[in-house]
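Final report, closing paragraph on structural work. Over the funding period we assembled a curated collection of sequence-structure pairs, and we close with a single example.
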Amino acid sequence: MRHYIGLIHKDADSDFGVSFPDLPGVITAGTTLDEARDMAEEALALHLEGMAEEGEAIPEPSSLEEVMSNPENRSGVAILVSVKEDQPKIVRVNVTLPGDVLEQIDKYAEAHGYTRSGLLAQAAKKLMTDAV
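Its predicted structure, as stored:
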């Protein structure tokens, strides 16, 4: 498992943005802090997978001290973002849901320690297992 430092940035009227100093250009955002963390894991996994498929060298993760020694990084809050090197391929999908259902999903997920994606994945697995 690899661990990269992600930097969270938040302006007054913006979503929570996440960037990776070790991987310039890899950025993502979420409307909540939890969503931003989830999106960061997804963006990191997709980017590293793409690099591997293209035969590009994957950089070694920098330490927190190395990242924060750069004055440009000090405006962000550092988080540790992990990616399993043998994890199944993560695929981003778009779904259409009624707004009230999405709101219920988000409330349930937050109250029970899930992310939206994690809750939907677990619900789908349970439904498919119970149907067998």
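The radius of gyration is 17 Å. The first strand starts at residue 2 and ends at 10. We thank the funder for supporting this effort.
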